[in-house]
Amino acid sequence: MKKIIVISTSLRNGSNSDQLADKFIQGAMESGNIVEKISLINKEIAFCKGCMACQKIGKCVIKDDVNAIMQKVLEADVICWATPIYYYEMSGQMKVLIDRMNAMYSLNYKFRDVYLLTTAAEDEPEVPKRAEMGLTGWIDCYPKSHLAATLFCGGVDGPRSIEGNSKLEEAYEMGKKV
């Protein structure tokens, strides 16, 4: 049994990437894992100021939702990010959260496996590559962890247009294998 944190970065309820996250969660829970979903909807996440105080005190000095999210990420065995792709890159809110979790760099962390679920209107195979590279940059700062798997669902350009897509079943199966 693993403790899994799924971070859904879309700010739209029931978005396509959020639906992939829910299927991943369903599979992971059916396999007996403990799963917590963190949605960034209604979360207060300010931009990093680059003050580097976090490296001295082990948390960010900005008073918002990031320190609580970061603590859950530190204690998880598995992290799964779900993001829409905007202009061939991860969502801005995902990037801001990654930047703000800079305090984790010098702290002990449990996670080993990191997953990435992405959706986009475009359907070409290269569409998620920049988001994968950006996340891999974060993962590289945690040498005991690695990018375990990715799943991209392209061609979903409107709200809930992923419904009935075979990628939902793939996300479910990915979650079951965690």
Automatic annotation (TrEMBL):
Protein name: Flavodoxin family protein
Gene3D superfamilies xref list: 3.40.50.360
Superkingdom, taxonomy of origin: Bacteria
Domain (NADPH-dependent FMN reductase-like): residue spans on this chain: 3-107
InterPro entries according to UniProt: Flavoprotein-like_sf (IPR029039), FMN_Rdtase-like_dom (IPR005025), ISF_SsuE-like (IPR051796)
Entry keyword annotation includes Glycosyltransferase: no
Keywords from the UniProt entry: Flavoprotein, FMN
Organism: Segatella sinensis
Stretches that traverse the bilayer: none
One Pfam family matching this protein: FMN_red
